[in-house]
């Protein structure tokens, strides 16, 4: 039986919330199925958000916080829910978390989704333009191949309210 979708096409039971320690296993399983790096995520579960369909983890987005810079990683959505705005909601939630920690620039590496992240305001950059602290992360040093696209989103020019998002 299919669930009734909301206006965005996502299941109505879908919630986005901070990850709990008990979510680590299901998030790692989702990353494996999505062919994304798992290494190092356990150290950042406290800055991870998850999408749940009732009690089942169906999406994730994590931040590695490095002072005023952050690495967005582990953005994954269950294959059956892709294309319904879940990835966008997870990324926006992670960016809200970054803002609450005083982050001014968010970086990421991607092999498969540069267009998705560009639609959210990220721009391609050279790896050597990434904040030095972020370049020391396991994602940059060993988990992601050198062919992965580096991207950056500046949060500095944003005011306290985002005019593109309703209050």
Question: Any overview of this molecule?
Answer:
The longest helix is centred in the middle third of the chain and has 15 residues, at 86-100. The chain has a single domain, classed as 3-Layer(aba) Sandwich (Aminopeptidase), CATH 3.40.630. With 167 residues, the protein is α+β, with helices and mostly antiparallel strands. The radius of gyration is 15 Å and the shape is globular. The N and C termini lie far apart (34 Å). The chain has helices at 24-33, 86-100, 114-119, 132-135, 138-143, and strands at 14-18, 48-53, 56-66, 69-77, 105-110, 123-125, 149-154. It has a 7-stranded mixed sheet with strand order 1-2-3-4-5-7-6. The model is unreliable at 1-10 and 159-167 (pLDDT under 50). It has 5 helices and 7 strands.
């Amino acid at each position: 039986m299919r669930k009734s979708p909301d206006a965005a096409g996502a299941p109505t039971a879908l919630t986005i919330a901070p990850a709990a320690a008990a979510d680590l296993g299901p998030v790692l399983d989702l990353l494996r199925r999505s062919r994304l790096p798992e290494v190092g995520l356990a150290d950042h579960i406290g800055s991870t958000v998850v999408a749940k369909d009732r009690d089942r983890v169906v999406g994730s987005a994590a931040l590695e916080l490095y002072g005023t810079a952050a690495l967005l990683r582990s953005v994954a959505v269950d294959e059956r829910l892709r294309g319904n705005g879940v990835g966008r909601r997870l990324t926006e939630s992670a960016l809200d978390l970054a803002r609450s920690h005083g982050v001014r620039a968010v970086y990421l590496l991607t092999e498969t989704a540069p267009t998705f992240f560009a639609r959210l305001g990220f721009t391609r950059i050279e790896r050597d333009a990434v904040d030095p602290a972020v370049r020391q992360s396991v994602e940059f040093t060993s988990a992601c191949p050198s062919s992965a696209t580096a991207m950056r989103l500046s949060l500095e020019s944003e005011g306290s309210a985002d005019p593109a998002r309703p209050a």
